[in-house]
Amino acid sequence: MPMNLEYVLISYGFWLLTFMIYIPWIKKKRKVFQQSLKNLKETQRQK
User: Contact 10/2 with Cβ under 8 angstroms?
Assistant: First the structure.
């Protein structure tokens, strides 16, 4: 059974892993959203 320090290290490891996946995913979604917004503005200008 893990000791107290091991619980802390495991929980920090889970948080780091979560943010290592989450942050790039959010950046990618933001980039796609900005591109979609730019395309929408371009189509509005053409009308």
Answer: yes
The count of residues in the chain is: 47
Residue 10 CA to residue 16 CA, distance in Å, equals 10
In the numeric block, the tokens 């503005």 are attached to 41
- pTM confidence score: 0.60
Distances 37 to 23, 40, 42 between C-alpha atoms, Å: 21, 5, 9
CA distances from 16 to 3, 13, 19, 23, 34 (A): 20, 5, 5, 11, 27
Residue-wise pLDDT for 21-33, tens only, equals: 999 999 999 999 9
Half-sphere exposure of residue 3, counting CA atoms within 13 Å on the CB side? 1
